[in-house]
Amino acid sequence: MSDRETQQPWVVVATFGAVWEADFAAETLREAGIPAHVDGGSHVGIFGAGYQGPSQFGVKVRVPWHRERDARELLESDALDDDTPHGHPPPPEAP
Q1: pLDDT, tens digit only, all 95 positions of the chain
Q2: What is the pLDDT of residue 59?
Q3: Shortest CA distance to 40 belongs to which of 29, 52, 28?
Q4: What is the DSSP pairing of strand 37-39 with strand 10-18?
Q5: Environment class of residue 28 by beta-carbon count within 10 Å: exposed (0-12), middle (13-18) or buried (19+)?
Q6: Across-strand partners of 39?
Q7: 85 backbone dihedrals φ, ψ, rounded to 5°
Q8: What is the largest CA-CA distance in the chain?
Q9: Quick one: which of 21, 60, 63, 91 has the fewest CB in 10 Å?
Q10: pLDDT, position 39
Q11: CA 86-89-92 angle, 5° bins
Q12: Is the separation of the CB atoms in 67 and 26 below 8 Å?
């Protein structure tokens, strides 16, 4: 990565209501080779930094600006996969 890329801003690609959701999305991106950072997960109120539940402020996932499109596409495709078990279409409904 060049010096110019490391100095460019990171952009928000997703916002989640719970810390664990943002952590999961960020790890999905990292596994695909996209650097990701969870922002807002450490300020979740009286429960402290280890708390993984809901956040009233939302928890953001950020990536470098030049990877934004790749990250959004991956997160969208991952969300579509979640609608069907293991990526298979749902069984037909009974009459």
Answers
A1: 555 555 669 999 999 888 888 989 999 999 999 999 998 765 554 555 555 566 677 889 999 999 999 999 999 988 766 554 444 445 556 55
A2: 87
A3: 52
A4: unpaired
A5: middle
A6: 60
A7: -65, 125
A8: 61
A9: 91
A10: 87
A11: 135
A12: no
* Separation CA 16–CA 11 (nearest Å): 15
Residues 6+ apart with CB under 8 A from 19: 38, 41, 44, 51, 52, 53, 55, 59
| DSSP-derived 3-state class of residue 76 | helix
pTM of the model: 0.67
List, in sequence order, every beta strand (DSSP E) within the chain.
10-18, 37-39, 54-64
Strands lying side by side in the sheet with 54-64: 10-18, 54-64, 37-39
Give phi and psi for 2, each to the nearest 5: -80, 165
Rounded to 10 deg, the angle between the 68-82 and 19-31 helix axes is 110
d(Cα 81, Cα 75) in Å, to the nearest integer? 10
